[in-house]
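B., you asked whether I could sanity-check this one before it goes into the benchmark set. Here's the sequence:
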Amino acid sequence: MRQLAGLSLGFHGQAGYKTGMENEKAMIPPDRAALAGLVRDARNLVAFQQAMGIEGYPASPELSRFLCPATEKKTATPVPTGERRPRRPVAAPVTSASSLADLRKELGDCQRCARHEGRKNIVFGEGESGAKLLIVGEFPTAEDDGAGLPFQDEAGELLMKMMGAIGLDRPDLYLANLVKCRPTDGHEPLPEEIAACQPFLLQQIAAVRPKVICAMGGLAAQALLHSKKNLLQLRGTWHKCQQIPLMPTFSPVFLLRNPEMKKAAWVDLQLIQKRLATFASR
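And here's what the prediction gave me:
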């Protein structure tokens, strides 16, 4: 038996197990056959993760969010009679900016959502049009907020090591985030905040015209792919955003807290390296 994140999961050899399952299916009712198939799939998934060198999943809030995305609805706070709830800023429509400079000018001193409250700087992005790889993180850190640039802290150092391992440097990259402001309390982006900022991100992608996009973190991947699947389901497989190949993977912040997941992230980076190589050979 192998102990994974507090759960005891046994694994039998795939060939021997499949034979056992076939014999078992012959003896169980049809309504239990589906359950048996799920068990088989779960065992095969564990085998795949073990083959990549993953010995377990850490018990952390970040992983819990990947595995079980929050679906609870917030209870509305009663508004006393005679008082008015402050109106939310309305996101202005985004026009088709022709360049990154035009888009930054249109963004202006953005107050399209509540995340602008308490920010020091808008973290628009860093890089040039024509970058090979566009990286989309989730939201700015305190260091990013102070500098006005993405990936400025220890996570940024890890990111550059990751990129260097697949032969990329700063000039090859365009760095951005799903949202561009860090509020005073540093909370994760809410759906309405993502909705206000995402049109600008999509325009950035159109202006940069990268060969490949890498969505780092579950929120970034779900927003760009319009998916409710968690990151563990999305990563390791190619998707498309605006007809551009997109690979989801773990964020550097997550990897710093959970270094045992770096092996899985390395698999994703190698896929990116191979895809970029196909463009270079054309």
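One thing to flag: Confidence is low (pLDDT under 50) at residues 1-28, 69-95. Otherwise nothing jumped out at me.
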